[in-house]
Design a protein that fits this description.
Helix content is 31%, strand content 40%. With 121 residues, the protein is of the alpha+beta class. Strands 3-1-2-4-5 form a 5-stranded mixed sheet. The chain is elongated, with a radius of gyration of 16 Å. This is Dihydroneopterin triphosphate 2'-epimerase.
């Protein structure tokens, strides 16, 4: 049996410059990030060794730093960058990232974009 583990960073709320309107370029906006990472977990739970697991704390710190310290015109760019961060972890075989902009549209809670990627190890 080779079960897959799925880590979910749930509703990470950050502020960044995102958008192409003048007001969006001048003022940070809220974004809500969800990231899912999947990996084959048997080595991690058989050995109880952190080196055989995905370090979600490190990934979360990278997501925070990248989001807060850069400017983005499009949700597509920010989401793709964060997906790349998730896929850099050695054990990750699949990742999905959703970035939402709350209040981007009148009468809507948010607008979001989701990207995913997978690889064979």
């Amino acid at each position: 049996m080779k079960p897959n583990a799925q880590i979910h960073i749930n509703n990470l709320r950050l502020r960044t410059y995102i958008g192409f309107n003048d007001s969006e370029k001048e003022n940070k906006q809220d974004v809500v990030i969800n990231a899912w990472m999947q990996y084959q977990a048997s080595d991690a739970y058989h050995t109880d060794d952190v080196n055989n697991a995905v370090n979600y704390r490190t990934i979360c710190k990278q997501i925070i730093s990248h989001t807060e310290n850069n400017r983005f015109l499009l949700l597509e760019k920010l989401t793709a960058d964060l997906l790349e961060i998730c896929m850099q972890a050695d054990h990750v075989t699949f990742a999905k990232v959703e970035v939402a902009k709350p209040h981007a549209l009148r009468f809507a809670d948010s607008v979001s974009l989701t990207l995913s990627a997978s690889r064979e190890l």
